Amino acid sequence: MLLFDEPSASLDPTAEHTMIFSTHRFGNLTQHANLILYIDETVQEAGTHDELMKKGGEYARIWNLQAKPFI
Question: Global pTM?
Answer without folding.
Answer: 0.68
